[in-house]
Design a protein that fits this description.
This protein has about 325 residues and is an alpha/beta fold. The protein has two domains: about 170 residues, Quinone Oxidoreductase, Chain A, domain 1; about 120 residues, NAD(P)-binding Rossmann-like Domain (Rossmann fold), CATH 3.40.50. Helix 3 crosses helix 9. The longest helix has 14 residues. The protein is globular, with a radius of gyration of 20 Å.
Length: about 325
């Protein structure tokens, strides 16, 4: 049985997040109503908080890495039961309840089954880990024995490092923060260096040949040109992070042309037309088996009362991953 109303945290404009009480939504035919247990606080949420929602549609709930349990089934839903554990890869996670269609549609991958043995804090990483696997395997097209340069060892960069290292790729991480450089090594980087003089260090590490792939996990447009230059002929630059309100870069097209460099994007793999459900299955297996030290990434928890503060400071180096829990109190 569900309540009549629920708490929810929604954006009403740039830097305007409000905790409100609204009616609990009823699942439409083909939808599930989920009682949310946890939601990861993501850099994408912070970007929407700072620069706004692309289509300008408010109010908007940016939480999209959430875990919960089925509270009610809409008409016609099969294959799900009450109380079953669910990962909801769509917006709406900063709330006590959310509805999700059982079939993938734009901005919703559909609900994903989660095993009971998967710890809650680890479960919120299902979608971001799937995206990182997509970046390494599909977009960077890396193979064992190759060399990759990963810019920044935040929550996403560390998972990319781990995925590449598990594949047998030699990884060099560029990260200005000392603690995160240590984590990069723990997650499988062969070398982790400061950002000062990184281009020369990469050239030396690759014996002057350049790397097979560069993966940018931060939306800094000024790094795209140097990333292209750091590649070997035929290499790939993967733009993993979004660039927010600063998406322009000046590039030397002759370098791309003569070195045959591929510059590719790498985005959310949850929804059509670029859906890759197999990456979710791969991510779920890795999380269940504890193949990566994912638990090391969770550095804090928050509830409704301090969610906005955590989103606002998401770009700081104070922590790596905060997990929102709607039932938490200060």
């Amino acid at each position: 049985m569900t309540e009549d109303s629920m708490q929810v945290a929604r954006l009403h404009g740039i830097r305007d997040m409000r905790v409100e009480r609204i009616p609990v939504p009823a699942p439409a035919p083909g939808e599930l109503l989920i009682r949310i247990e946890a939601c990861g606080v993501c850099a994408t949420d912070a970007r929407k908080y700072e620069v706004g929602v692309n289509d300008g549609h408010y109010p908007f709930n940016p939480g999209h890495e959430w875990v919960g349990r089925v509270a009610s089934l809409g008409d016609g839903v099969t294959g799900w039961r009450l109380g079953e554990r669910v990962y909801g890869d769509t917006y709406g996670g900063y709330a006590e309840y959310a509805v999700i269609p059982v079939e993938p549609i734009p901005w919703s991958a559909g609900p994903l089954h989660l095993p009971e043995e998967l710890p809650l804090d680890r479960a919120v990483f299902l979608e971001p880990l799937a995206d990182c696997l997509h970046a390494v395997h599909d977009q960077a097209a890396l193979a064992p024995g190759q060399r990759a340069l990963v810019f920044a060892a935040g929550a996403m960069g560390l998972k990319i490092i781990a995925a590449a290292a598990r594949l047998g790729v030699r990884v060099l991480a560029v990260e200005p923060h000392e603690v995160r450089r240590g984590l990069a090594s723990e997650f499988g980087a062969e070398v982790a260096i400061d950002s000062a003089g990184w281009a020369e260090a990469v050239a030396s590490w690759s014996d002057g040949k350049g790397v097979d792939a560069v993966i940018l996990t931060i939306g800094e447009a000024s790094l795209v040109g140097p990333a292209i230059a750091a590649c070997r002929p035929g290499g790939r630059v993967v733009l993993f992070a979004g660039f927010g309100n600063r998406p322009q870069a000046t590039l030397d097209l002759n370098v791309i042309h003569y070195k045959e460099i591929a510059v590719v994007g790498s985005e959310w793999v949850g929804t059509p037309p670029n859906q890759r459900r197999e990456r979710y299955d791969q991510a779920r297996n890795l999380l269940v088996t504890g193949a990566f030290p994912i638990d090391r990434l969770v550095t804090g928890h928050c509830g409704f009362e301090d969610l906005e503060d955590n989103i606002r400071t998401r770009g700081s180096l104070a922590g790596i991953k905060t997990v929102f829990r709607p039932g938490r109190s200060a």
